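Pasting as-is:
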Amino acid sequence: MSVDTYKKNERQGFSKRLGHRLQHKAMPVSATALAREFNLRWRGANITVNAVRRWLVGEAIPAKDKLGVLADLLDVSEDWLRWGASDIDMTANDAPDHRVENMATAAYNIPKDARSLMQDIMLLSPKDREYLRALLDVMLRHSREGR
C-alpha cells in the first residue's frame, strides 16, 4: 500500500469514527454545528466551518491539540478517535459512552511516543523496515555491550 493510500484510508477512518460518534451522541453531523461546539471549548483562534467540513468528509485530520478537544467533546479517547479500536470496527451502536482506549495498545501499556513511532514505522516500505530492524539490532547490541 502506498503512503498516499494509507493516509487517505486514515482520513476516511477518522471521518467515519467522527460521524458515528456524533450520531451516537445525538449531535448533528454538520460542519456548522460541530464548529460551534468545538469553538466553545477550544482556547485558540476559532476553527472555520470549512476546516470541520474537511474532517467530516475525510479530507483532513485535526492536529493533536484540536483532537484532544474533539475527543473530550465526544467522550472518547484521542487514540480511538484518531486511530480506531485496533482490528475492531466500532459503529455508533458499539461505541460506549465512556472513554474507550485503543485496545491493542492499552492492553500492553505502550506509551504514546512508542505508538507514534510504531505508526511511523508502518508508513515505511517493507524493505525500509528491514533496514530499520538491522539498524536497531546494531544499536541494541552496542547498548548491551555498554558502548
